[in-house]
Amino acid sequence: MSFVHISKWLLFAGWLLLLAGAAFTQQVNTLSGAEEIIARANSYGAARDFPSAITLLKQALDRYPTYLPMYLCLSNWQEAAGISRLAGVNSSLERWSSITHTQLIHDPSLARDLLDTYGLAITRLPDSKLIRQRMQAMLDEDLPVSVGDNGLLALPGDPEFVTFSLSDPRLPLTERGFRQGLLTTYPLLPSAIYQHDPKYGRTAGKIDDDWTFAHMFYAYAHDTKASCWNLRFRVMWQDVPGKGEERRQFARQTAQLLLRLSEVVDAYTGLVPRFTDHGAINVWLAEKHEAGGEALNENLYLYGMDTPRSSAEWVREIAHEYGHLSLPPVTGYTQPESQATGLLGERLFVHWLLLNTAVPGTPLPWLQAMDADEFTLNRYFQIISRFTQLGPLDQALDNTNEEAMNAFVGLALYLEATRGSRFLTGVLKDMRTPAYAGKNGFRDSLENMEQYLQGTDHPMVVLNLRVLPPAVPYYVYLMNGNWNCELVGVNLQPAQLILNVDGKVIPIDLQGTFQLTNIAQGWHKVAFTSAEGTAVPELTSLKFTFAVAPGSADVNWKK
Fold first, then answer.
1. Please, are residues 319 and 345 in contact by the beta-carbon 8 Å criterion?
2. How far apart are CA 370 and CA 355, in angstroms?
3. Model confidence over 9-66: pLDDT tens digits?
4. Under a CB-based contact definition with an 8 Å cutoff, are residues 470 and 536 in contact?
5. Could you tell me which of 69, 176, 410, 533 has the fewest CB atoms within 10 Å of its CB?
């Protein structure tokens, strides 16, 4: 780690120890500009009142977080303050030199005390090499999981920013707009805890050299509400002779994709990986094993790096494993794997990624190379269409084979498309067991959710039809009673449509409305076909509103 990087860490450590005095807060609020604040700090410094200069500048950084001269001025007076205390340094160097690496790692207050006491001055001491080595070892152990808006200077090198936009109109306004992430710009040497992965790196207490990782990137995402950067991914990869740059670029694209993926999943669902408190995932790009991936606690593996794969396949694989890490588990399958959340992740997450690529951002070659139309037709529409031929009560969904998993994923995609991502997330989170169709499993959770939402004075169910495959039947869960229904579409001509509900033709008027009477509680199939010689128009929504008959008694909403 160079002198510049040590300095950045020291400056960052100083920020962690802000002493906010009320008097200086008042001064910052009354000063008219950054230059006036710097001039005032310089006057304090010239009078050797270094603490006042430093405190004033730290307070001002909240107002001027991107003004470089202010950081330089702060660094100058921090260093001056440290040099002014050099007389006391030599007498205490022996004490600091006796502190072991282990003590620094397990008691960060010792390092903070050292930094706060001597600031940048320790880098100028001729006999402080041991201290610097131990501090570097501590700092190299792991970068912070969260840094403030001003903390970017603490990261090695100049951070590489990753920007993209969420533009899907189905998202709430609060979730749309630009998102930002950043990567450390050059590979770091992993510390001991990241040189060997937790599953294969050590066997029977012995280190396996085939599972040694030599390089890593850190990837942070910006939290605008908290004004900080949160660590999301550590991406580690191995040395391969003659392929160093190729592997580095692959790791870089992996980190970029995961940053975008994590922000997209957060925007649509509010879910974060559930295996770690601070949300950071360790990603291991391994040369060994057959091509594929695996999710294990807070770890994501990609195997067989030398096996050629298309851009679409890499995106699919990463989204699959991130589905296992972030979605509540839906399990009990025997084929092709025990959990369905990986398959759901690769279909749903990639669909969301492709819905939000219209607004320019940081180029991501893997996504740019994907054929969005091909994915939508063959991997998104196809699995939804397969489900709509079965329906939510088909016995095939109760099995444990691959067909059953595909049917579940089709149902989940259908629910997200028609009812929204937060509806699907709520059903998944409310499952009392991780099974699909068992007692308290996904289907029970889904029907309980419908009953809860419809147990109001004026129940209404709205199906969004915009992103569904064309000409498929629709399924809706309704409570007992009579319902008024309204169909909306582009160039809608109701007279040219034939409406079929549960195998019975229902009249539809010229305004696109119809009534369902004496409906029994449960699932109902709604299908539209066109009159002979006409095409089914583009349908956009179907609304069901409960109708209370004049003079009727209360409706029983319970089973």
1. yes
2. 13
3. 434 434 333 333 444 444 544 456 888 999 999 999 889 898 899 889 888 877 886 6
4. yes
5. 533
Number of residues that this document lists for the chain? 559
Higher pLDDT, 128 or 292: 292
- State residue 250's pLDDT score: 96
Do the Cβ atoms of 539 and 480 come closer than 8 Å?
A: no
pLDDT tens readout for residues 396-411: 899 999 999 999 999 9
Q: Does 467 lie in the same domain as 527?
A: yes
Least confident range of 15-19, 129-133, 489-493: 15-19
The SS3 call for residue 215 is: strand
133 and 21 fall within a common domain:
yes
Do 29 and 162 have their domain in common? no
DSSP state of 178: E
Q: Once rounded to an integer, what is the mean pLDDT over residues 416-438?
A: 93
Q: Tell me the pLDDT tens digit for each residue of 457-485.
A: 789 999 999 999 988 999 999 999 999 99
Q: What is the DSSP string of 239-304?
A: --TT-HHHHHHHHHHHHHHHHHHHHHHHHHH----TT-TT--EEEEE-SSSSSEEEEETTEEEEE-
* Phi and psi, residue 481, nearest 5°: 135, -165
Of the residues 120, 141, 162, the one at which a domain ends = 141
> Quick one: which of 138, 100, 136, 96 has its CA closest to 117?
96
Cα of first residue to Cα of last residue in the chain, in angstroms, is: 67
**What is the pLDDT confidence band of residue 154, given thresholds at 50, 70 and 90?**
low
Domain that holds residue 478: 457-559
- Does residue 185 have a pLDDT over 50? yes
Tokens 């890499």, located at residue: 314
**Same domain for 529 and 480:** yes
Tell me: do 137 and 164 sit in the same domain.
Answer: no
Q: Are residues 168 and 263 in the same domain?
A: yes
At residue 187, φ and ψ (nearest 5 deg) are: -60, 140
**Residue 151's pLDDT is what?**
62
- Label the pairing between strands 228-237 and 281-285: parallel
- Paired residues of 219 in beta bridges: 183, 233
Is residue 256 pLDDT above 90, yes or no? Answer: yes
Domain end point (choices 278, 301, 331): 331
Looking at the DSSP assignment, which residues form a beta bridge with residue 147?
A: 229
Residue 496's domain is classified under what CATH number?
Answer: 2.60.120
Angle CA 537–420–332, to nearest 5:
115
State the total domains in the chain: 3
Answer yes or no: do 133 and 252 share one domain: no
Residue environment code for 277-306, b if the CB has 16+ CB neighbours within 10 A, otherwise e: eebbbbbbbbbeeeeebbbbebbbbbbebe
Residue 456, number of CB atoms within 10 A of its CB: 10
**CA-angle at 290, arms to 287 and 292, nearest 5°:** 90
